[in-house]
Structure to design on (266 residues):
């Protein structure tokens, strides 16, 4: 049996608590676990572009003493010769101990897991899910509020096509969740967390939106503003210095959380 991480629903609360403890530990000493995965190889297999997810998984593996095979653009692999997902997964499973997969279609990670002899970590499957992003998002919320319950969370942006929203909203059971249409920014509900996302043009979404000084003034002083990145115009750069902007923290937590996740595969 291998433990795949295809959906955030593969994890129970105890698993998430263990990951949070590990992240704390890692943050106290990044080098403490430098030999943890010294005998392991991770395959980064990306069918869609990525900066943060692929680099943080690679960095996490190196920080744990492991090695990485990177296929960051499948156009330079046999996929460009028409190889199907199952054959590619079986192949990479011969050469690695863990496969981090980003794919184009929702459900691909399930298909990969069904044929793989090594664990599959879903790094985003089309419009489906992005469970490791959810874990780092949850950790960022926990770090800022000391809890992930009794909070009001407002999602703004591409709710239909945004996989980060799909995964995160599945685990906010004890929170009040609002979805705010980008045309309705003037009516932003009062929230603890504003989670903004990019309009996914590559998936057919249209339009754009941008936070203005007037919108920001409506937000409570003690709220936080999150974004999985990449951003387009939705959060202007002048907001980056606002203490409520937490997206760079999210990015850093991405490394720690991915180290914590990979440590499960010792
Ligand atoms: C997101 C993704 O790929 O789903 N990026 C990420 O992994 N941090 C968000 C996006 O592409 O808009």
């Amino acid at each position: 049996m291998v433990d795949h991480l295809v959906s955030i629903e593969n994890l129970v609360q105890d698993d998430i608590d263990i990951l949070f403890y590990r992240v704390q530990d890692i943050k106290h000493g990044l080098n403490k676990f430098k030999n943890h995965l010294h005998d392991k190889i991770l395959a980064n297999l990306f069918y869609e572009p990525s900066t943060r997810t692929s680099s943080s998984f690679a960095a996490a593996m190196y920080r744990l003493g492991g090695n990485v095979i990177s296929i960051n653009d499948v156009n330079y692999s046999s996929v460009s010769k028409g190889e199907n997902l199952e054959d590619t997964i079986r192949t990479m499973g011969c050469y690695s101990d863990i496969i981090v997969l980003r794919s184009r279609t929702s459900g691909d990670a399930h298909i990969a897991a069904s044929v793989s002899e090594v664990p599959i970590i879903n790094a985003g499957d089309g419009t489906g899910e992005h469970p490791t992003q959810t874990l780092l998002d949850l950790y960022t919320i926990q770090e800022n509020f000391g809890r992930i319950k009794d909070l009001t969370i407002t999602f703004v942006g591409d709710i239909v096509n945004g996989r980060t929203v799909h995964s995160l909203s599945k685990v906010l059971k004890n929170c009040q969740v609002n979805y705010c249409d980008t045309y309705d920014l003037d009516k932003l509900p009062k929230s603890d967390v504003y989670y903004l996302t990019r309009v996914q043009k590559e998936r057919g979404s249209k339009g754009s939106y941008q936070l203005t000084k007037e919108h920001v003034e409506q937000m409570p002083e003690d709220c936080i503003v999150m974004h999985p990145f990449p951003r387009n115009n939705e959060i202007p750069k002048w907001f980056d210095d606002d203490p409520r902007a937490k997206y760079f923290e999210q990015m850093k937590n991405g490394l720690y959380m991915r180290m914590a996740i990979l440590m499960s595969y010792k």
The first helix runs from residue 13 to 28.
